[in-house]
Amino acid sequence: VEFGKVVEDQLDLMRRLREHRTAGTVAAAELATAIRTGQIVPWYQPIIELGTGAIVGFEALARWQHPSGQLEEPGVFVPLAEDSDLIIDLDLMVMRQALTDLNQWQRHQPGTRMSVNLSARHFGRSEGLPQIHSVALDAGVAPEQIDLELTETIPLITDTTSNSSVTRLREQGFRVWLDDFGTGWSSLEHLIRLPVDGIKIDRVVALALGTHIGNAVTRAVTGLASEMGLITTIEGVETHRHATIAHQLGCDYAQGYLWSRPLPAAAVDAAMASA
Ligand code: C2E
Ligand code: MG
Ligand code: MG
Ligand code: MG
């Protein structure tokens, strides 16, 4: 009887594993279709220069607009895309749309910049850099107006490929940032190895602003940045007090719900046209 129960449990486990795998495959196929059929769209969050309070640009953040009307945030589908080269198509699709929108907005506000998130997976493919460059060329936006944020849930390739990719992108005129600094894979090692222009300080740090430790960490990061000649953006600023402290501690730029949540393109269109 006991043996039978063990076998039964084992079969049940195998069944559940198979179902799980099938579910994963179906979701990935669905996401691939969504990318192809334009269901993945960028929403935009303004980036503010702390010294002047001016909006200097926007970060494009992927949203999945299901045909049912449901809107999904990237927390689930971006990690799924990052499991495979789907993230390449997703990133390029978001970048293409974001630069088309930027073209429009620059008519009202010349000099407005666009930040897009890029997986390090692009660096592992020979066509990675040419693809990124041609998206900019096709949109008619100079690389000088584009910020590329290296986002990580997979480790950045730490060999020379990533280093030379960052160098190459900067030679082409792009600004390159290390995203989510202070969490996960976004480590001092990457700061040492990757010749980036700037650091995006993670929201976990912003949340601690105003405390002794939060201020100490922020001051250390901005000190390190200035020593290295890098610019800084702090993410996730939700209060005036945090914005003031971040500015006092040397952060150059900020993003956060204090100014705006990510907005659909139409909302930014309206704001830009009436500005
Ligand atoms: P991220 O690049 O670090 O983007 C910042 C995230 O913080 C965004 O979440 C934004 O909505 C959120 N945020 C900004 N200000 C505040 C605030 O004041 N309070 C709070 N609670 N949250 C704030 P979102 O849009 O959910 O994006 C999550 C992550 O998904 C991004 O983090 C990025 O790593 C990834 N992602 C989004 N779009 C793309 C994409 O097109 N390509 C790639 N590779 N990754 C993307
Ligand atoms: Mg980002
Ligand atoms: Mg970030
Ligand atoms: Mg993030």
Plain-language structure description:
With 275 residues, this protein is an alpha/beta fold. 50% of the residues lie in helices and 20% in strands. The chain is built from 10 helices and 10 strands. The chain has helices at 2-36, 74-82, 86-108, 128-139, 160-171, 188-193, 203-207, 212-228, 240-248, 265-274; strands at 40-49, 55-65, 71-72, 113-119, 146-151, 175-181, 198-201, 231-234, 253-254, 263-264. The chain has an 8-stranded mixed barrel with strand order 1-2-4-5-6-7-8-9, surrounded by 5 helices. Strand 6 (175-181), helix 6 and strand 7 form a beta-alpha-beta unit. Helix 2 (74-82) packs across helix 3. The mean pLDDT is 91. The structure holds ligand C2E and magnesium ion (MG) (3 copies).
List the helices and strands and how they pair.
Elements: H1 2-36, E1 40-49, E2 55-65, E3 71-72, H2 74-82, H3 86-108, E4 113-119, H4 128-139, E5 146-151, H5 160-171, E6 175-181, H6 188-193, E7 198-201, H7 203-207, H8 212-228, E8 231-234, H9 240-248, E9 253-254, E10 263-264, H10 265-274
Parallel strand pairs: 2-4, 4-5, 5-6, 6-7, 7-8, 8-9
Antiparallel strand pairs: 1-2, 1-9, 1-10, 2-3
Helix pairs in contact: 1-3, 2-3, 3-4, 3-10
One magnesium ion binds at residues 59, 117, 149, 151, 179.
Keywords:
275 residues, alpha/beta, 10 helices, 10 strands, globular, binds ligand C2E, binds magnesium ion, EAL domain-containing protein
Radius of gyration: 21 Å
Mean pLDDT: 91
Structural class based on helices, strands and sheet pairing: alpha/beta
Largest sheet: 8 strands, mixed, barrel
Q: What's the total count of β strands?
A: 10
Strand order of the largest sheet: 1-2-4-5-6-7-8-9
Indicate the low-confidence ranges by residue numbers.
none
Shape: globular
Number of helices: 10
Euclidean distance between termini CA atoms: 76 Å
Helix content: 40-55%
Bound chemical compounds: ligand C2E, magnesium ion
- Strand percentage: 15-25%
Could you give the order of the helices and strands?
HEEEHHEHEHEHEHHEHEEH
